Each structure stands twice: as C-alpha cells, then as structure tokens.
Amino acid sequence: GGGMTVSNATFVNFKHACLCGCAHCGRGGSPVIGDGAFETRFEGMRFVNSSQRALFRHPNEAFFYDLDGSLTGSGIREDWLRGGFVKGSSMVGTSVLLPPSKCTATALSTEGTGGSICLGLTFRRMWYHIREPSEW
Description:
Layout: E1 4-7, E2 10-12, E3 19-20, E4 38-43, E5 46-48, E6 54-55, E7 62-66, E8 89-93, E9 103-106, E10 115-119
Parallel strand pairs: 1-4, 2-5, 3-6, 4-7
Antiparallel strand pairs: 7-8, 8-10, 9-10
C-alpha cells in the first residue's frame, strides 16, 4: 500500500514546486541502488497562486497517487483501493517508458524532468540487482 497520505493541505504563493519526491528520505545522502519510486497518496489538495505542483529530479523518483483528482486536476474520485473499479490519476516524472495513450506531460510540473499525469494506471515499485553467476 501507500507509505504516506497527504490530506486537506493548502499551498499558497509557492513560486516553485510545492511537492518533491524523496528518492532517499532518511538516508542523509545521495540516492543509492534501490532508492526511489515511492508512493504518496493525496486527497483534498488546494493550490492558491501555486502553479507548479511537483518537482521530479529524475523520472522514477516517486509517484503521487491522487485519490480525488485534487492534485492532478483530473476530477477522478477513485474507489480502486476500496475494492471498486475506478482507478485514480497519478502524477509521475515524465519518461519515455510511460504509455502515451494513458499519460500526458503536464504544465503543473515543468521543473526537473517534468511531470506527467497518468489516468487509469497502477504503479508499483520494483527493484532488481543484476548479479554475475559467480555471485550466486
């Protein structure tokens, strides 16, 4: 499931991105293998005079799952997490790996790698480490 949920927060007069993924939170240094791609959920978000909602320093840094459409502006209220059929929208770092039929670059996140809003997708964190046969 999600690691953290941000509910009913209002951001006012942010010149730069209000939200930033954290590829290595709590480690006190640079990202290492296995860092990044953590989920944060959002609901009830308000942005006043704050046009840049998220900064992604690299495309796989984080994914922001929007429970009610208030982060992405999609207006989609999801019920997927409660056993329903409607998946919410997500804001993720722009990448060539995203399906163009489901994801579109957004003006709400233009700093860093830029952000994309994806509709109807489920993102999962995956990590692998390639080993040489001699290490097995």
